[in-house]
Amino acid sequence: MARKFFVGGNWKCNGTNEEVKKIVSTLNEAEIPSEDAVEVVVSPPFVFLSLVKSLLRSDIQVAAQNCWVRKGGAFTGEVSAEMLVNLGIPWVILGHSERRLILKESNEFVGDKVAYALSQGIKVIACVGETLEQRESGSTIEVVAAQTKAIAEKISNWDNVVLAYEPVWAIGTGKVATPAQAQEVHAELRKWFQNNVSAEVAGSVRIIYGGSVNGANCKELAAQPDLDGFLVGGASLKAEFIDIIKSATVKKSS
Ligand SMILES: O=C(CO)COP(=O)(O)O
């Protein structure tokens, strides 16, 4: 089965009401490849989810940036998967390195979150990635494999999961992984799925890259055989996000 190109825009903790409306109208006016060629998802902060969902064209989907690990209840400040379902939000980003590192979310906690969100019918963009220190010590593959394993131990079906490889040293730094560096890790992750989950999942799971992706570097990255799209931070707040969405066409012709 061909893996459909996937482009996610992670707006992180950015935007005012006015700015959000502006980004949405830029997206609404853009000419982008059809839904058959690319799946596009944007992820505004929680407070703007309803606004974005109500204004955004229907061929672009909406994701939350996090959700609570289990059923909602007395968890001050948290947002539950049930609430996302209630709002009609189909996707959630889980395990982003900013949450793993700053908010100390463990591999196991992220695995539990992924399993719970899936159990409620929400699709998951699950993030993995090594720090610069881990890369320099040669443990990149070990780190991303352990992060992926902690998810695999909690779920039995990967159909509704997109795995985002986001090296921490490339996030927000302008230091994008080279196409060869990204391809190497994506291929190793696919091999990990082959050896530890199944050949079928290894062939079908989409592995997307994130970390300083922009309009200028996206095409060369998109051409890598094991790279199935992007999770974009800073550039997803700008018009160049459209160019990144269009890099799906590189894949089609390659
Ligand atoms: O963290 C990211 C997406 O989730 C990547 O962020 P940047 O594209 O700003 O480097």
What would you note in describing this structure?
With 254 residues, the chain is α/β, with parallel strands linked by helices. It has one domain (5-253): Aldolase class I (TIM Barrel, Alpha-Beta Barrel), CATH 3.20.20.70. 42% of the residues lie in helices and 16% in strands. The protein has helices at 17-29, 49-55, 81-87, 97-102, 107-119, 132-136, 140-152, 179-196, 199-204, 218-222, 240-246, 248-253, and strands spanning 5-10, 38-43, 60-64, 91-94, 123-128, 161-165, 206-210, 229-232. It has an eight-stranded parallel beta barrel with strand order 1-2-3-4-5-6-7-8, surrounded by five helices. Strand 3 (60-64), helix 3 and strand 4 form a beta-alpha-beta unit. It starts with a strand and ends with a helix. Bound molecules: 1,3-dihydroxyacetonephosphate. The site of 1,3-dihydroxyacetonephosphate (13P) has 14 residues, from strand 8.
